[in-house]
Each structure stands twice: as C-alpha cells, then as structure tokens.
C-alpha cells in the first residue's frame, strides 16, 4: 500500500465515529426552561392564594364574580376548567426539563417568553380584580389574551412533528388556556359595565355582542387556519356558552332585578344555541378533514398503481 493511501485510510479511521459514542451532546437546560417553571409557580401561587383563598382580605374571585354578576356569567362549575389548565401546565413545566423536550422547537421557539408574559399579566389581573379595579382588570385580561395568542401564533409557525405527545404536552396546555381567556375577556367587558352600573340595555347589548364574537372566533379557529383547525379553543368556547345557559336557569338576584324574565330566557337560549352550533361545527370540521384525508389516500393509491405500470419517467409503456 502506498504512503498516501495509508495516510488516507488512517485519516478516515480517525474521523469515523466510534461505536457507542454519542453523535450529539444532550441539550442543556437554559434560561427559558427555568423561567417557564418559575412563572408557573409564581402564577399559581397568586391565583390560588389571592384569587381562591382571599389572602388580601378583599374577597375571593367567586365572591366578587357574584357581586358583579353579568347576563353572560357562566355557572361556577365552568371555572373548574382552571384545574385542567393548571394541571396540564404543571406537566409542561416539569417535562420541558427532560432531555427529550428541553430544546424542542415548540418550547424554545414556540413558547419562548410568551408564557412568562401571560403569567405576569394573570397575576396583574388577579390583583386588580381583587381590589375591584375592573377597567384595569380588563386591561390585564387582554394582555393575557395577547400573550397566549402570541404563543399559539408562534407555535403555529414552528416546525411540528405532528405527534400526539407534542400536542398534549407542549401545545394543549396553552390552547385550552387561550380558549378560556377568550371567553373570560368577553365576560370581563360585561363586568366593567356592571361595575359602572350601566343600564340594562347597555349590559344586554354587550352580552349579545359577546356571544356573537365568541361564535365568530370559533368559526375562525375551525375553518380559517391553513395548517389545521384548533378544536381545543372551539370546544372551550362551547363549554363556556353551555354554562352561561345553565347559570341563567337559576339567575342570581342581581340579574332578575336588572332584566325581565323574557330577556333572561332569550340570552339563555342564545347561549345554548351558540354552544350547540359550535359543537356541530366541530363535527362538520372533523368530517371534512376525514373526507379530505380519505380522498388523498385514494389519490395516492391511484398514483402508486399508475407508477407500477409506467416507466421511470412516469409515462405509460407503449406497446409495440
């Protein structure tokens, strides 16, 4: 063997990876991972400490919600969705430290700093609502909404694996949060009107427009997203409307003293209709997706069959 050949062989052997050696070093935990956990804890401590347990002595969120009852306030059972939100976000805050997820694009580029912003805004909302500064609480509510939709927008344009584990652990916790804050933002507008003691016709108009806006958003997230529908937000909006109907079956004194029975029943039926229509839209969208996939599979199968009977350039072989 010549000297150049021997040198080339030795060089190739040196460059070849050794068996059992890792190809890439594992990604390190960075400041984004740490901030996600920190702000989750920060948020849940304030939300449950101040909002649920009334640490500031100004009443709990439940007590204040009843004090500022609106024509579109859902039944208290609806707020149990917060347990789902915080449980899934707790799972996210923990698993994003694992090697498999810590450098995942959905965490680093998708969630980025948006979740931190949402948590800070939510703490601001909790404090302002506790002190009954309702216009300020609306500002913070809209900031939460902006942060969460910014997060979802960022994830929407982040490369996705399309796997269920990615959806449930890295995307669902924020989609369900965004869905609920969408409904809560509409409610917060009505709360401001009640706090200002606006007349019944103004409160009614705000309530009706709110239901219409929530339905419009459900249409948008189901039928207008090019990469696929967001079923989570749509289902949460249906959930909220369903519990608005349930609450108006036994309305609080503030509602019965403000609105006529016919008005209360009308809003209740409208909320129930919106809840049902959104669910119907979800079923239709699932059907459309299934039909499109089925048609695509048939087209692919047909193309494969043609390819088997054609030459390498895709044209049918001519018989001579």
TrEMBL record:
<feature type="region of interest" description="Disordered">
    <location>
        <begin position="299"/>
        <end position="320"/>
    </location>
</feature>
<feature type="transmembrane region" description="Helical">
    <location>
        <begin position="174"/>
        <end position="196"/>
    </location>
</feature>
<feature type="transmembrane region" description="Helical">
    <location>
        <begin position="230"/>
        <end position="246"/>
    </location>
</feature>
<protein>
    <submittedName>
        <fullName>Uncharacterized protein</fullName>
    </submittedName>
</protein>
<feature type="transmembrane region" description="Helical">
    <location>
        <begin position="266"/>
        <end position="288"/>
    </location>
</feature>
<feature type="transmembrane region" description="Helical">
    <location>
        <begin position="133"/>
        <end position="153"/>
    </location>
</feature>
<keyword id="KW-0812">Transmembrane</keyword>
<feature type="transmembrane region" description="Helical">
    <location>
        <begin position="76"/>
        <end position="98"/>
    </location>
</feature>
<keyword id="KW-1133">Transmembrane helix</keyword>
<feature type="transmembrane region" description="Helical">
    <location>
        <begin position="110"/>
        <end position="127"/>
    </location>
</feature>
<feature type="transmembrane region" description="Helical">
    <location>
        <begin position="202"/>
        <end position="223"/>
    </location>
</feature>
<feature type="transmembrane region" description="Helical">
    <location>
        <begin position="37"/>
        <end position="56"/>
    </location>
</feature>
<keyword id="KW-0472">Membrane</keyword>
<feature type="region of interest" description="Disordered">
    <location>
        <begin position="1"/>
        <end position="27"/>
    </location>
</feature>
């Amino acid at each position: 063997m010549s000297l150049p050949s021997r040198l080339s062989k030795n060089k190739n052997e040196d460059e070849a990876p050794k068996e059992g050696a890792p190809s890439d070093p594992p990604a390190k935990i960075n400041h984004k991972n740490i901030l996600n956990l920190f702000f989750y804890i920060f948020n849940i401590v304030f939300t449950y400490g101040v909002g649920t347990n009334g640490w500031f002595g100004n009443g709990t969120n439940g007590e204040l919600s009843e004090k500022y009852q609106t024509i579109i306030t859902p039944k208290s059972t609806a707020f149990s969705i917060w347990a789902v939100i915080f449980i899934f976000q707790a799972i996210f805050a923990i698993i994003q430290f694992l090697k498999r997820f810590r450098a995942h694009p959905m965490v680093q580029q998708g969630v980025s700093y948006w979740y931190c912003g949402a948590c800070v805004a939510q703490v601001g909302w909790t404090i302002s609502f506790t002190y009954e500064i309702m216009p300020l609480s609306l500002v913070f509510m809209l900031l939460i909404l902006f942060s969460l939709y910014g997060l979802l927008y960022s994830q929407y344009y982040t490369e996705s694996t399309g796997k269920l584990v990615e959806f449930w652990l890295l995307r669902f916790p924020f989609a369900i949060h965004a869905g609920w804050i969408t409904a809560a933002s509409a409610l917060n507008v009505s709360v401001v009107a009640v706090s200002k003691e606006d007349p019944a016709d103004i409160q009614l108009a705000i309530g009706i427009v709110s239901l219409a806006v929530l339905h419009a958003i459900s249409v948008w997230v189901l039928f207008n997203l090019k990469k696929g529908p967001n079923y989570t937000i749509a289902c949460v909006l249906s959930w909220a409307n369903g519990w608005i109907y349930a609450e108006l079956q036994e309305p609080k004194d503030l509602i019965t003293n403000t609105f006529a029975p016919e008005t209360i029943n009308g809003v209740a039926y409208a909320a129930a209709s919106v809840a049902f229509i959104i669910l119907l839209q979800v079923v239709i969208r699932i059907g459309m997706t299934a039909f499109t996939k089925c048609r695509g599979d048939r087209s692919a199968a047909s193309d494969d069959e043609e390819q088997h009977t054609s030459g390498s350039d895709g044209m049918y072989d001519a018989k001579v």
